Amino acid sequence: MSYHLSQLGWDDHFASLFSRWDRSDTAPGRVLRADRGVCTVLTATGVTRATLGGSVMIDAARDPALLPCSGDWVVLRHWPDRRTTLEMVLPRRTTLIRRTSDKDSSGQVLAANMDTVAVVEPIHPEPDDARVERLLALAWESGADPLLVLTKTDTTSDPAAVARQIGELAPGVPVLPVSVQRGAGLDELRAYVGPGRTLALLGRSGAGKSTLANALAGTTVMPVQAIRDADGKGRHTTAYRNMITLPEGGAVIDTPGIRGVGLLDTEGGLDKAFADVTDLAGRCRFDDCRHETEPGCAVQAALADGTLPPRRLASWRKLRREVEVESGRRSARLARVRRAPAPPGPHRF
């Protein structure tokens, strides 16, 4: 079975990156799913399973974020004994990455090379403002275009009003109310995932990501579990990252349901997610204003006249402190890696 990789976003940029590895025994492919040491990869001749080559493992030992993940374009090598190994992850155009729970501030890549990151938030029982802000910062930092998708809008009588309210948390981000049950908003969502384009879905378990993926694919490609009516929470339907190709071209990456999202070095994404606050901060009289009691503070003035909610400012401060701490930890870890002697490894073919 042949497949046109251009339908998944293969273009001159990635072809140029691959050219130095182009040999009779190699081929480019895109990772559909990554398991422990084995990746399911789509190539021009179909789907294949590939084990990780030694150079990839060495890179990952230095930085786990370099492990291949769903959406990565990679170099495969076919061996005479019919083995296939994944020898190289091509440089990513965009990367959706969150902080892991360890103390050295390493990152876990959730998806790669997506054009749009959709933050998926259910409106039942009610949206979580703080979670939406945190996920939008992650989406902005990825380098892809962020999108806020509000699911289960059939549970409210006025989804447009909810969208306007939540939209205040997402300056510069399109807000799309969707009901898979009623088919509302799906055509608008499909516009983000046409031929050559990739859409990543990001949100908590039970938000409706797998349901959206199934609706876009036109068939059941991801398992869906019922949620609890009382709190709207679901079990972790998707425990792994998976890229789904669509019949009309394009792909959807369904990420695992996320209970908590740690931010890494996402100061740029945070500034965009809180563009309203950072814009106010730029108007303060003093460049080093802490937005507390300083004279001429535009942030405090906005609090006083009600244009900036106190909760919004508190959320911005909390996330800024988190990013500052994690940036320091990450810098210290990278410094240790640079000082450590490089381990011997296989020659890159």
TrEMBL record:
PROSITE patterns: ENGC_GTPASE, G_CP. NCBIfam families: ribosome small subunit-dependent GTPase A. This is Small ribosomal subunit biogenesis GTPase RsgA. The keyword Transport does not apply. It comes from Actinoplanes italicus. Residues 112-259 form the EngC GTPase domain. It is found in: Cytoplasm. Gene3D superfamilies: P-loop containing nucleotide triphosphate hydrolases, Probable gtpase engc, domain 3. One of its GO terms (biological process) is ribosomal small subunit biogenesis.
